[in-house]
Amino acid sequence: MFRKDRSASYFARQFYLDSPEVATNRSSRWQKFFVAHRSGRLLERPRVAPTWVPHKEYMPPMYDRLQSKYEDVRHEMNTMRAKYPKSRLIFIAGDGLSLMRMNHLIANQPDVYLDQSPAVIPIQGELHGLFHGMHCQHRLYRPFIMKCAEVLNNPQIKEDPGVSDYNLHRFFLLNIITPAAMEYMVEISATPGADDLDDPGPIMAKAAANVNFDWLVHFLHDCSFFTLDFLQSVRGNDSANIDILWREFFSSAHTDTANKTQYVGMAIMRVFWGMGLVPDLDALYHAIRTIPSGTHLGCGVGWDWSIEMLNGVIKAHIGAHVSEMQISNFIANWACMEAVQKNMKELLEQNKAEQHWRGRNVRADIDLLKKFFRDSCGATWAEAISRNVNPRIVKTAAGHSVKKPWKQVEEVMARRGVNAPHAYIERYVRGMSPFFPWQP
Amino acid sequence: MAPNKRKGRHDGPELESVAALASQMADQAELEELRAFKCALMRPTQTAGAVFDMQTPGDKLLLAQAIWLGGYNDSMLCLREANPELVSVINAQTKSQYDADPARVRRLVNGVLLDIVRAQNQFKVPLVTAAFTILSDVQGVKHTFHEVIRRNFSGALMTTNWGDGFLELARANRPAPDDEMLEGVQVGVFDNLTMKLNYGSYVTQEAGGEMKHMTNWLVAELPRKLATPGFNAEYICELQYI
């Protein structure tokens, strides 16, 4: 099932930011998103129609099992495999912790998990993947994001959000700060002497003179557009692009500030599985990278979305007197309930335009942030690229300086010797894939 | 003496009688039309595949399958089209300033139609009523409120007991997927969940609360069309690709 023409050294070098695919994507998405912004389509779902309808079967829970122990994950993997004893392959999806454990179990016992049927191919749930991608950037750009939250007097935004805070923080990032920053960029690009907004290179070079503008431009380029690109790639099942984004993710996640130690390894392994399978299997792996959540355009979601939804409704539905029987019965009925809930949308939401989330007055927040950007970066292009070393756009603790995220990334990627990124990645992927026939 | 208006007209008496006859015929036609309309209005509603008879085992199974497939909106369209006289009366009776919103008018008419269908025969269950009953369960609607709505608007909801039994039937009669499935390849998804069992703000007896740990999971088969033509999992797993 594995290719024999892959080189670990070549694989490891794909994670640098100047790797052609990563660099091209970072540059082209800047242009793509500004074009979409100008036409008012920035946050629209990709116009990709789902090609299949998942036929999900919810199984009775495995009680007294979690994912924090290898023994539990081994039991869970074997239970799933036992469901299909005659099958040759089973893709298994889970959240970060379970995926990491699956990767280790496969590496330690390939004779069990790869040589015996059904062989396991781990797939990362991209709902968790997207959160951790965003979380990584949130940690790096925390001084800027928290300053924006302070300007808007929004106490809901946390210094270090958890998975349960995902929706709120994604909304703040993509529906408020990002449009505000983009509108500000469009505004000053109409003033005399402005550079072409479609080309990020010269803009970033000139922005370096003004610490505030530098933060804003890098925030868009590295943090905001990374997250939006990831979200849209999941929605449109653009599996190849998701792998490019995981490669880009490495450089940020490997910094001390982001400190995504588990997800660094998972990102490497996700890319590994995306390039290591024989062509027919590889095509299937990428075709099912995400799962349609409905019938509308751009409705792709990570595989872990369905099970997260189930857990959410169990908690919401089963109240005070929880019993195993109640939970099992609810789960047995859930597939039908889920189908009815989905089918009822056509009846309940007839002629209903897609509404803005939470009914928050987004426009007022965007306008306030734009004013803040004008005040801190400059109201014209000339002001924005003028020398300024006084950081007003970030939240700093008294007497402390803030390290620029892009400088941290540069330092990480400039490491040499055994700590060089490619050396680290090669060591890691070889250690986790003893079963793989790497090219000498 | 008043002048005779018909005086001097060659076709006077004949024309008058023809006109009278025509008027009489029109009245008769209108009367017949009205009688037919009344007759149509007074008959039980025509249910046209949108409503299922729970006393007929075959119908019950059909409903248990239809609930999975959707088309709820279309079923209401069928119900409206099958009962044009009733719909025209409801339309006339509910005419208001909101007529400009056709979707709103349709919803109003649908609601009244569902109530009438259920009021006429308690064994007849519209697809949409069954769906609302399940949705009420999904949304965790309080039992007392569910009952109040059901008693006052019988077209909206069935009893929760009926819903529980119906879900069991629906589970057993889930339609097979439309797609041809890929052999030898499946997907499993899992995630953990921890819930508090029997926790309270105080403990009156020796028994306290406990945490219930579990891993929930689902499986899915994959449509063959997602794989390359000739995809063979057995062969792939033996393949040493160069």
SSE topology sketch:
The complex is a heterodimer of chains A (440) and B (242).
Chain A: H1 8-13, H2 20-38, E1 55-63, H3 70-83, E2 89-94, H4 96-108, H5 110-113, E3 119-124, H6 126-140, H7 142-151, H8 166-189, H9 200-207, H10 211-235, H11 239-253, H12 261-276, H13 279-287, E4 291-292, E5 300-301, H14 304-317, H15 324-348, H16 362-377, H17 381-384, H18 405-413, H19 421-432
Parallel strand pairs in A: 2-3
Antiparallel strand pairs in A: 4-5
Helix pairs in contact in A: 2-10, 3-4, 4-12, 6-10, 6-11, 8-10, 8-16, 9-10, 10-11, 11-12, 12-19
Chain B: H1 12-42, E1 51-53, H2 57-69, H3 72-82, H4 84-93, H5 102-120, E2 124-126, H6 127-138, H7 143-152, H8 160-172, E3 181-197, E4 210-223, H9 233-238
Antiparallel strand pairs in B: 1-2, 3-4
Helix pairs in contact in B: 2-8, 4-5, 6-8
Characterization of this structure:
- The complex is a heterodimer of chains A (about 450) and B (about 240).
- Chain A is built from 19 helices and 5 strands.
- Chain A has about 450 residues and is mainly alpha-helical.
- Chain A has a domain at about 10-50 and about 130-275 and about 365-430.
- In chain A, the strands form 2 sheets. Chain A has a two-stranded parallel sheet with strand order 2-3.
- In chain A, helix 4 crosses helix 12 and helix 6 runs parallel beside helix 11 (about 240-255).
- The model of chain A is unreliable at about 355-360 (pLDDT under 50).
- With about 240 residues, chain B is an alpha+beta fold.
- In chain B, the strands form 2 sheets. In chain B, strands 1-2 form a two-stranded antiparallel ribbon.
- Chain B is elongated, with a radius of gyration of 31 Å.
- The mean pLDDT of chain B is about 85.
